[in-house]
Amino acid sequence: MSWIILFIAGLLEISWAIGLKYTDGFTKFWPTVGTVFSLVASFLMLGLALKTLPVGTAYAIWVGIGAVGTAILGIYLFGESANVLKLVSLALICAGIAGLKLANT
After folding, report:
1. Residue 48 pLDDT
2. What is the SS3 assignment for 11-64?
3. What is the per-residue pLDDT across 11-31, written as a single tens digit (0 to 9) for each?
4. Where in the cell is it found (predicted)?
């Protein structure tokens, strides 16, 4: 169950990271509310996952999910570059996430 909670925490990290763009420097009320909600929920769920998972592994996976998801959505939503080096680097992060998960099962 902790791995599922950690995965959801990672998805919420993507949500608040992307949400920051939509807050326009925290000048837009509803995007700011959604971003803050996602941030708090992400941290709470990470904290719950840490009750049974190793902190180094859980934190690295949480950050990795957030980084990869945010980069992919940045490409999709904001037209950020999607060059080969960036995509290969994202694939390497995914491989690292999978490796950390496998090392802790």
Report:
1. 98
2. HHHHHHHHHHHHCCCCCCHHHHHHHHHHHHHHHHHHHHHCCCCCHHHHHHHHHH
3. 999 999 999 999 999 999 999
4. Cell membrane
Domain that holds residue 42: 2-103
Alpha carbon 23 to its chain centroid, in Å, reads 18
Q: State the DSSP code for 104.
A: T
Say if residues 49 and 20 touch (Cβ distance below 8 Å): no
pLDDT at 49 over 80: yes
Return the residue matching tokens 């420097």.
25
Burial of residue 57 (CB within 10 Å: 0-12, 13-18, 19+) is middle
pTM tops 0.85, yes or no: yes
